Amino acid sequence: MNYSISVQQDDFDTAAEYQAMRDSGPGTGAIATFTGLVRDSGDLQGVNGLFLEHYPGMTEQVIESLIAEAAGRWDVRKARVVHRVGELALCDQIVFVGVCSAHRGDAFAACAFIMDALKTSAPFWKKELSGSSEHWVEQKASDLARHPGVLKP
Amino acid sequence: MNYSISVQQDDFDTAAEYQAMRDSGPGTGAIATFTGLVRDSGDLQGVNGLFLEHYPGMTEQVIESLIAEAAGRWDVRKARVVHRVGELALCDQIVFVGVCSAHRGDAFAACAFIMDALKTSAPFWKKELSGSSEHWVEQKASDLARHPGVLKP
Amino acid sequence: MSEDHTLTVRFFARLREELNTESLTLPIQPDTTAGQLLTELARRGGAWAQLTGAQPVMIAVNQTMAKPDTPIGPGDEVAFFPPVTGG
Amino acid sequence: MSEDHTLTVRFFARLREELNTESLTLPIQPDTTAGQLLTELARRGGAWAQLTGAQPVMIAVNQTMAKPDTPIGPGDEVAFFPPVTGG
User: Fold this and answer.
1) Which residues on chain D are in Cβ contact (under 8 Å) with A139?
2) B15 vs B101: CA distance, rounded Å
3) Which of B136, B140, B146, B150 to mutate to test the interface with C (most CBs of C within 10 A)?
4) How is domain D2-81 classified at the CATH fold level?
5) Tens of pLDDT along A77-107?
6) Fewer beta carbons below 10 Å: N end or C end of chain D?
């Protein structure tokens, strides 16, 4: 299993990410990808940007362990996670998760698992910006329900 | 809800498909995509190509109804299905399913549902080519278990 | 009156190949079902016998999934094919 | 001996802003846990009191998720932060 993780301010290129997934050999039959975008309503309405903070060093370790867990549960030939930090504008790309596998069920399951677990376990914090107000986003009960416990003290 | 379906011999460009998903307005927070590729082992080993047959007209109608069903169950802002037919080589792209939604859970669920249902309900048939032998692929019990009944007489 | 009393039958994939037939135009009796048509075709024997054999045969009437008891009539398009395997 | 008897405490996101503190270097007592350090910091009062308030505070020790009873010692990096909200 091959994987790679980037935490960066810069935007990413999903076309290049997809191409890297395709270049994973003739045993790959399925590629599942997920991209998260800054949308106009979250805890606030009229969101026009986000500020994303993270815990350098720990973030990468947590994501690495989530990918290893996914690879232990499903057939994962290659996994890729890119997560942006800093100031982002409306409609900007935030996060990319890509998984390739022999089979579609494994690709979907591993991709959704990594994304769900990232939301409850990786040390990122999102602040919504709306006009002159700003608001630290609160963790959703629905997110914890999908992947409980990793972060609960 | 906006959708589009193509059944075609030509290859497709996932970068252009992704861009069309992104251009779905500021309410989109999540894009899930799936791509299926010709892989080297299926019912046969050493597969070096596929021949894909379909039922023109019916195929599009079935996929349209699957998208409508997905849009009734989850928040779907835009859905796209491209499926190739004819002769394909090893590592070629076969199928693309893309869904964008406000929320990641809906994007993942609707994308996986459309893909799973397509495999058991849309009138496509795949023949594996391996050296000089060829073999019509048989439907997997595991596929029917994921989305049972649509095609059972 | 000939056009008014026929239907079109189509075959796909393995069935198309093994029956060596893409489509047929057949006269149609009143009060018939897709399943009765299948049984009638199977009586041709040889490769046709598989239409009522162990392997499942799927049915579509006018490009919509159908069942053996789906009624069929003049002008209809009836298709028989193996379980689908796309994606 | 000063470097040997201290640890680093880091705060992130809402806690970092409300405590107006990114990091602290503190002397460390023997046989201490992350939870005891949290309680000690909360005794500073004001904004610090929220560290043991109603809102959950997550703990990491040396960049690994930890619990209140996780032992800490000299040279460790202890972090306190709100539940994460990335992705």
Assistant:
1) 82-85
2) 18
3) B136
4) Ubiquitin-like (UB roll) (3.10.20)
5) 999 999 999 999 999 999 999 999 999 999 9
6) N
Domains of chain A: 2-129 (3.90.1170.40)
Phi, psi of C18 (to 5 degrees): -75, -30
- Count the residues in chain A: 153
A90 touches chain B (CB under 8 A): yes
Find where tokens 């867990």 sit.
Answer: A69
Residue bearing the bigger pLDDT, A43 or D56:
D56
Pick A35's closest partner by Cβ from B14, B31, B90.
B31
Q: Is C68 exposed, middle or buried (0-12, 13-18, 19+ CB in 10 A)?
A: middle
C and D touch per CB criterion (3+ pairs under 8 A): no
Name the CA radius of gyration of chain D, rounded: 12
Using a CB-CB cut-off of 8 Å, the residues of chain A touching B111 are 32, 108
Roughly what angle, to the nearest 10 degrees, separates helices A104-121 and B104-121? 170
Q: CB B133: neighbour CB atoms within 10 A?
A: 9
Inform me whether the C-beta atom of residue B122 falls under 8 Å from chain C C-beta atoms: yes
Q: Is the pLDDT of residue C20 over 70?
A: yes
Please tell me if residue B135 touches chain C, with a CB cutoff of 8 Å.
no
Higher local confidence (pLDDT), A131 or C74:
C74
Q: How far apart are CA C48 and CA A100, in angstroms?
A: 42
Predicted confidence (pLDDT) per residue in B20-46, tens digit? 999 999 999 999 999 999 999 888 888
- The answer to whether D79 contacts A53, with C-beta atoms less than 8 Å apart, is no
Q: What is the Cα–Cα distance from B65 to B113, expressed in whole angstroms?
A: 12
pTM of the model: 0.93
Token pair 């008897």: residue: D5
Q: Please tell me the distance from the alpha carbon of residue A2 to that of residue C11, in angstroms, as a whole number.
A: 44
For position A146, what pLDDT does the model report? 61
Give A18's contacts in chain B (Cβ within 8 Å). Answer: 14-15, 18, 35
Could you please report the per-residue DSSP string of A21-52? HHTS-TT--EEEEEEEE--S-SSSSS--EEEE
Residue B52 contacts A, CB cutoff 8 Å: no
> Do the chains A and D touch each other, judged by at least 3 C-beta pairs below 8 angstroms?
yes
* Cα gap D21→D19, rounded to integer Å: 5
Distance from CA of C50 to the nearest CA of B (A): 16
Between CA A140 and CA A136 the distance in angstroms is 12
Q: Residue A54: is it exposed, middle or buried by C-beta count within 10 angstroms (0-12/13-18/19+)?
A: buried
